């Protein structure tokens, strides 16, 4: 009964939000359709119609934080979307319009309502402004300079409304005959759930601390330390790093560029294959470098813990890709898929991925002389004969791979 009452109380707001989203989508849909018609008349598709990236950016910005986050994710999929879309969508990572100062101040004062005010100075003008939070410079009572991440007022209610609306949209799409086999509900649960988890600032402060510990051995990776005693449900207080600069690739000399790439890859590999706690939001708004080419990771809101089985699958895939064994890569993907349709062309998928891996690795499976070792490890009891080229990397790292 209490649950039903809660839903009824939220219903008017949900209806209003639905009307707002529908109006924005309809208006921009007409603009995009008009752009497509104009492109057809001019017999040119460059940057027009569905590829009119600026219109998509404006629409997603008007729709709000949930949709901005979706746009940020799409901006990284250059393998699926054309440059005319991904380049404008990448701008969504730079900045969002900040709330009014009075709303920010009210939110921060409310966050510390049950304790003494902990700041000697607080700059109400944001240093950075994202879709979910603003970041401010402050000085604590004991004189330490800190950065304070403040959740946007009212953002949780809006994002939960959007989650409900997009869930309904995914359900509707799943009814269409041609789309019934698409796992829309699963996709929505994973992506939508990850976006909603970014509202959990207590979890973010914990993730910052763990990532900082996990990557402490890397001399060229910096992560701000959270000030746990000052963090609240609406704020994350962390060490202030003053020498941040966002570099464009063209601004880096070749040596610095190589050092930057090595730092990024080393950190990603450590998170993926060793620690299992992965920062999944390394877009330009969260990734900085200092003048010493040190990598600086910020904003640990989108961090996930990978189960050992998933880490093993990642390791197996990359190992076999390096070995040029595309067929094993394909089998790993098939084995880890959420679902595989009965009429899927698995052989075609294996052939296509094998060709792609061969092109990327520069070696063919037939020429590979790598093997798992030993045949049956006495330490971890891994049977490499029954599971060919499965590394079991996290059970017995000293003996997982050797050259024949």
Walk me through the topology.
Elements: H1 2-42, H2 53-63, H3 65-75, H4 83-90, H5 101-111, E1 119-122, E2 128-129, E3 133-140, E4 145-151, H6 155-175, H7 184-197, H8 201-214, E5 221-222, E6 235-239, H9 254-275, E7 277-279, E8 287-289, E9 295-297, E10 303-305, H10 308-322, H11 326-336, H12 346-361, E11 370-371, E12 402-403
Parallel strand pairs: 5-9
Antiparallel strand pairs: 1-3, 2-3, 3-4, 4-6, 7-10, 8-9, 11-12
Helix pairs in contact: 1-2, 1-6, 2-3, 2-4, 3-4, 6-7, 10-11, 11-12
What does this structure look like?
This protein is an alpha+beta fold and 404 residues long. It has twelve helices and twelve strands. It has helices spanning 2-42, 53-63, 65-75, 83-90, 101-111, 155-175, 184-197, 201-214, 254-275, 308-322, 326-336, 346-361, and strands spanning 119-122, 128-129, 133-140, 145-151, 221-222, 235-239, 277-279, 287-289, 295-297, 303-305, 370-371, 402-403. Strands 1, 2, 3, 4 and 6 form a five-stranded antiparallel β-sheet that branches. Strands 5-9-8 form a three-stranded mixed β-sheet, covered by helices on one side. A two-stranded antiparallel ribbon has the order 7-10. A hairpin with a 4-residue loop joins strand 3 (133-140) and strand 4 (145-151). The model is unreliable at 365-404 (pLDDT under 50).
